[in-house]
């Protein structure tokens, strides 16, 4: 019998200490920025009822949901019924729960469930989601999203606020070149009408348009035809939303959002013109926050999720296929769970993609996973080693104790080994114990000094690292 594989499942990952520190670095910065914008934290269960999840992401999204089979008798009963009827068991009979697909639908459920929430609920949520997608570079089946949402208002100030929050995060992480692409779902619908496409095919047309950057105009035209949209209508649609090459769309045309919106306004009906007016207002508001210099009007931006109703957003960076995040306004989603309609807007950053780009571009600061000090000991009783380690930790130091009796050279070598990389070694022998001190060695420079235990703290170690002792 072969041994089981030690690899995690496809699309899932283990995070070793250095990776965990990088993730923590980004997440803590995201939390600080979101809280500075007035957002409060929320967490929801990993498992949701399928009745909550299904029908919110479109047919393709529903196919990517991880479903959890019933257990024991609850699974056996539908299997027995199906067998007795001479048919395979139906999917709906075998599962009624699934792993969450995103953080927006759970938020909508929470808002509908808890009437005591503030009228304008500004929440952030940083948790994993799961999608049965094909893994690729920066694309995983389990990944974290960093969401900010505001519920309870249709004001475009809310849209500007979520754009400001994510732009501030990226700037503080060190991103200089990134674009926040913007469009409006009602403008897309107006363009579809202007192209002569039946409104009944609107959803399927948007699914194809959403792939424009991936498969190009010819690929979109072919897919539109496969979805029952006439070639002439498909060409008319692309003539409005993508009249130039992809490079020009991302550059010259996107740089003048006001002019582009004016051109679009002349091609759409009254509902489309109202959408253009909202985008113009959003651009005006964001001109006064960090998002403004990054906004690009992109009439070809579709966003595949079916619950968007107003402005939609997507973040791109050079040399990365796909996006770092996205979002938009979803004024009807909360109403699906309750009697009351609650407007909302949100933005989601993809943690995994951010980490991939930052690693490739060497954007991370120096992050140490090792202890401040490795406590090495020679010829002293182990209870004394524990006592000294406890005292040092109480003074704010991260201390690891070498766990075995060994020669000093072996202990020092381990302290400086890859995967440990302690900044200092603290040597505890009979002389140090009697003097109530520790001989502290800065491992990278070799400088060392005997320091009283009562004086050992992070500041004293920093001083030893920077300046050699004078005596």
From TrEMBL:
SUPFAM superfamilies registered for this protein in UniProt: Class II aaRS ABD-related, Class II aaRS and biotin synthetases
E.C. number(s) listed in UniProt: 6.1.1.21
The UniProt record lists the keyword Aminoacyl-tRNA synthetase: yes
Compartment annotation: Cytoplasm
Protein's recorded name: Histidine--tRNA ligase
Catalytic reaction(s) noted: tRNA(His) + L-histidine + ATP = L-histidyl-tRNA(His) + AMP + diphosphate + H(+)
Highest rank taxon of the organism: Bacteria
GO MF entry, a single one: ATP binding
Native organism: Enhygromyxa salina
Record PANTHER family: HISTIDINE--TRNA LIGASE, HISTIDYL-TRNA SYNTHETASE
Residue ranges of every copy of the Aminoacyl-transfer RNA synthetases class-II family profile domain listed in the record: 23-371
GO BP annotations, alphabetical order: histidyl-tRNA aminoacylation
GO cellular component: cytoplasm
Keywords: Aminoacyl-tRNA synthetase, ATP-binding, Cytoplasm, Ligase, Nucleotide-binding, Protein biosynthesis
Sequence similarity: Belongs to the class-II aminoacyl-tRNA synthetase family.
Subunit structure: Homodimer.
Top-tier EC class: ligase
Endpoints of the signal sequence: none
Positions of L-histidine binding: 102-104, 131, 145, 149, 303, 307-308
